[in-house]
Design a protein that fits this description.
Elements: H1 3-20, H2 24-35, H3 38-66, H4 69-93, H5 99-118, H6 125-134, H7 136-141, H8 144-157, H9 161-172, H10 175-203, H11 206-226
Length: 233
């Protein structure tokens, strides 16, 4: 196997696991799995994370073809160092261990309350039943729970530092290794969240995760800074 694929895979896997454990989407998956069928929640979250990882790697792969390899290398280095110090700052200034968990739970509770408040009885039950039968196949494939898990996870990850770090990593490492490592890392974290539920999520030290992730980002940044630029002339 190509060494560049192994290097990209290992970096992406380690970065993804440390970035996603204790993240908002991790807590959201844990809470959703307590309130809905775990299999559907898991499928929705994994689908969203797979699409997000693939898109991020695609962007990272395309950037070196549009910008000089030298510039993308330097940008990736700055991203890793910047996210590293950012994570360390978050870890040292973190006050409550379950603050993010409580925030996500409150948001999901408010969504449920809003949905219940918008529900109104409909006198045309026969017409509604007919429409439901016509859309039965679509509902089986994309149930409301699946779509909820997908949308919460996808938009929760959009613009997150883990997505930007994946783009930077894909621009500087083998894209195939990065996408494989990212998807496997996302799958491991999501399965842990869905199976462990809130009991596992509440035991995770956000402070330690942030500090560990910060150190890893800085190590990647230093390694990128010291490594030669491939393909530079």
């Amino acid at each position: 196997m190509d060494l560049s694929i192994v290097e990209g895979f290992s970096k992406s896997l380690a970065m993804t696991v440390l970035s996603e454990i204790g993240d908002k989407t991790f807590f959201a998956a844990a809470i959703l799995a307590m309130r809905h069928p775990r299999r559907i929640v898991l499928l929705g979250c994994l689908a969203a994370l797979t699409v997000m990882t693939a898109l991020s790697v695609l962007v990272g792969w395309a950037v070196p073809n549009l910008i000089s390899r030298k510039w993308t290398h330097h940008i990736a280095t700055l991203l890793f160092l910047g996210f590293g110090f950012w994570s360390l700052w978050e870890g040292f200034t973190e006050e409550g261990e379950s603050e993010e968990l409580a925030e996500v739970e409150a948001k999901l509770d408010s969504d449920i309350t809003a949905n219940k408040g918008n529900g109104k009885p409909n006198s045309k039950e026969g017409a509604d039943d007919t429409k439901k039968q016509e859309r039965r196949l679509l509902v089986h494939i994309f149930s409301p729970i699946f779509l909820k898990a997908f949308s919460i996870t996808f938009f929760g990850e959009w613009g997150d530092k883990s997505q930007l770090a994946t783009i930077g990593l894909a621009s500087d490492e083998n894209p195939l290794g990065v996408v494989l490592g990212g998807i496997i890392g996302q799958a491991l974290c999501t399965i842990a969240a869905v199976v462990g539920g809130k009991s596992l999520a509440s035991r995770i030290s956000e402070k330690m995760v942030a500090l560990s992730g910060g150190v890893l980002f800085i190590v990647f940044g230093l390694q990128s800074f010291l490594s030669p630029i491939e393909g530079s002339s």
